[in-house]
Structure prediction request, 201 residues.
Amino acid sequence: MIPLQPFAIALFAAMPLHAPAQAPAATACVALLLPSVEGVDDATAVATSVRSIFESYLTGPSLKSVLLDAKLASQANLEAKQKECTQILTVSVTRKAGNTGPSKLSSVARAAGTTAAYTPIPYGGSIAAGAARGGAEAVADVAYNTHAKDEVTMTYKVVTAEGGTLLAPKTVSAKAKSNGEDLLTPLIAKASEAVAGTIVK
Prediction:
């Protein structure tokens, strides 16, 4: 066996050791219940649209959304645990008519050629983009039937499947300054910022 020369030993000792690869950052998860909606003709359609826009905002490199099918709180908690997403966003939306216009919004009647005036920008990914497009179309239906002085109020909170509270209930509202104004999407965007700030540590 040929002995190592002193300079070879020194060179080997000076070589840096490779640091172990860092594990990817954990992705925070928020489960989305179907929102409670009042003051509209088709509450289920509007609720589905509101949730799809929340999904588009609450999706990104460090945050993902999971949709819950359960309606009862106890079942939603179990479903969230099964899907390993135990932070749950609950949302309620109420629309109050102003002094003019119909007493309720129609979520399906829309003039031909009307398009969404306010399209949410998702954090990224084809799933989020698809949710945003679908939600924006329904929001355009709602906005078309909005009249000046109509008001939309949104209350949201984040709880855990174990019964804890991560984000205490917060209420935001907006009043239309003109006919056809989209009130929902800006409120969803504002709420999403608060939710993301709570979920992503």
Observations:
- The beta strands are 28-32, 36-38, 63-67, 87-96, 151-160, 165-175.
- The domain at 26-199 is CATH 3.40.50 (Rossmann fold).
- Confidence is low (pLDDT under 50) at residues 19-24, 102-132.
- The chain has one domain: 26-199.
